[in-house]
Design brief:
The protein is of the alpha+beta class. Helices cover 50% and strands 13% of the residues.
């Protein structure tokens, strides 16, 4: 989504955005808390680009994930929420990453060990992240993700690993749909303003169609997810 990102030695240089000051505060806060799974903010270079530490590892595609991988990712996001809850960054809530999909985690030895790309981070309800993770890590209309019953069990794994409360577990399936619908709105806005992202209009249209299909899939199988989370 962001053009002009480059690696320079052990750092990553990113064009500054309106969200950069908040991201700098967030990453500095996580550093001060002793967090080891987030990059460090190092200031700006002579070109005005944000400088972040480079996190070695790999990022996966959207595939089927093992329960242990989902648990590790959920643990990282729970720590993000706990470390920001009620702070100056989120006085009445937590800081949500808002894009905690597998491609924004760095993997080492097959396990997610770091969370990157905080451009969309802002205060919010923890279920905003959990709903998106339920979709990105566990649920898909694509056959390779397995039967819906197995997907529902992985949503339960996610909720268990995060420590989600009983009331929030009941709300999680609807938040999965909500995040899918938000994805449609997000990309529809960029389709109307092609200069806002390097993604091609054709690819954006494909993402919108896919997100709409995924939302219908979860809504049609809502009972499976409710039962698994009960």
């Amino acid at each position: 989504m962001t053009a002009g990102i480059v690696r320079v030695g052990d750092t990553v240089r990113r064009p500054s955005k309106p969200s950069s000051p908040f991201v700098a505060q967030l990453l500095s806060h996580l550093r001060d808390c002793g967090c080891e799974w987030s990059p460090r903010y190092l200031g700006q270079d002579a070109l005005g680009r944000d400088i972040l530490t480079y996190v070695p590892g790999s990022t996966p595609g959207w595939t089927r994930f093992a329960d242990a991988q989902i648990r590790a990712a959920a643990t990282i996001v729970r720590q993000l929420h706990d470390l920001t809850r009620g702070t100056h960054l989120a006085p009445a809530s937590v800081v949500c990453h808002n894009d905690a999909a597998p491609n924004n985690f760095v993997f080492a030895d097959g396990m997610p060990v770091a969370l990157i790309d905080f451009d969309l981070a802002m205060p919010g309800d923890p279920l905003e992240d959990l709903g998106y993770m339920g979709w990105a890590w566990c649920v898909s209309s694509k056959p390779e993700r397995g039967p819906v019953a197995a997907q529902a069990e992985q949503v339960r794994v996610l909720a268990d690993a995060y420590g989600l409360s009983a009331p929030d577990r009941a709300r999680l399936p609807d938040w999965i749909v909500e995040r899918q619908v938000r994805n449609v709105r997000f990309w529809s806005a960029r389709l109307e303003d092609p200069g806002s992202t390097p993604t091609s209009p054709r690819k954006i249209a494909e993402v919108i169609e896919w997100s709409e299909r995924e939302a219908r899939y979860v809504a049609d199988h809502r009972a499976h997810f409710i039962a698994a989370l009960a």
